[in-house]
Design brief:
Elements (H helix, E strand, L loop, with lengths): L2 H20 L46 H8 L3 E12 L2 E13 L5 E4 L1 H4 L2 E7 L5 E3 L1 E6 L4 E5 L9 E2 L10 E6 L7 E17 L2 E9 L11 E3 L4 E9 L9 E5 H14 L5 E2 L2 E5 L2 H7 L7 E6 L4 H4 L7 E5 L2 E2 L3 H10 L5 E8 L2 E8 L1 E2 L5
Parallel strand pairs: 8-13
Antiparallel strand pairs: 1-2, 1-4, 2-3, 3-7, 4-5, 6-7, 9-10, 9-12, 10-11, 11-14, 12-13, 13-14, 15-22, 16-17, 17-18, 18-19, 18-20, 20-21
Amino acid sequence: MNRISIRNTALSLILIFSLAWSAGCNVLPDLGGQTPPPTSPPVTENTHSNDSERAIPPAVSQAPILPSIADVVTSVKPSVVAINTEVVTIIFNRPSTQEAAGSGWIISQDGYIVTNNHVIEGAKTITVILDDGRPFTARVVGADPLTDLAVLKIDAENLPAAKVGDSSIMRVGDWVVAIGNSLGEGIRATQGIVSRQDVSVVVDRNQQLYGLIETDAAINPGNSGGPLVNMAGEVVGITSAKLAAVEVEATGFAISSEIALPVIQQLINTGRAVHPWLGVSLYTVDKFAVERFGLEVDKGAFLVEVVADSPAGSAGLQAEDVIVQFEGKEINTVDDLIQAIRLAEVGQQVDIVYWRGNSRNTTSTTLIERPPAP
């Protein structure tokens, strides 16, 4: 090839590149058959698209906006009280006075206050301190050791009563706030969520609490008796117990308002709580019971003992029967049956479905008042 041909070829290539550049094309090297990477057009602040079909809509969050915890605390805190007690015990034949702290909340403007039974049990003196700092000597209107609830009364009017909410509509994951006299150092608030519902906890060998709300809101000594509130500032539980064990954290419990309200109303009205009674000793049906007694069902409340002259005895129930339904409610565990009985009323006639051997039977009985503990 002579110099003129080389020169003409070079000029042709320069012309092609120039035309390509002026036409807005990208000239890329040969990629050996591979697809070239996509390129993006230059972006400027004032770039607007007239093609509505190709426009990308902005991201929109679907998460609900949480209400302010501070607003909830502000609305409820005036209704929460600190409770200080003095209990006299005899040690080596000498009286000894011990002080303790707890919490409570105002349920009516005329001075009725809800707390836990264990907060005021055996107290010689009970002092209630309002949110504004005013102290009052309180008297016990009524107390119920079975549900660990108590009602106090102070001589005051026009108090800021707390609103009571429906705990039955709470869901696992709902936000809650515990407010109380934590550690006896004044009213403070902690927040968390509902971790579990309808929980039962053995408090001691003679007491088991049912229908509890479990929460990871921090609950410390002194919180007992204080309110657990929802984001509407409504009381949905009364903090009552904390599970204290090695490597267990953020596990507190509150008596649900659904369980507590009927008892509270009884204590205010009559000074005592009346509980319906069936008259049985129970064991939750499990694999051991099925094999040991040859049961035909693998769930229910196994009757260990039936008290003579009790409603259960009058209904013809016997030891080793298995109750599987109570007043239309399916019974899978002992807790199911106990809660069903507690939600019934003294004097109410109830239908009971039970298994005896390989036969399914139905009976009915009338519940009576639970006798006092021996």
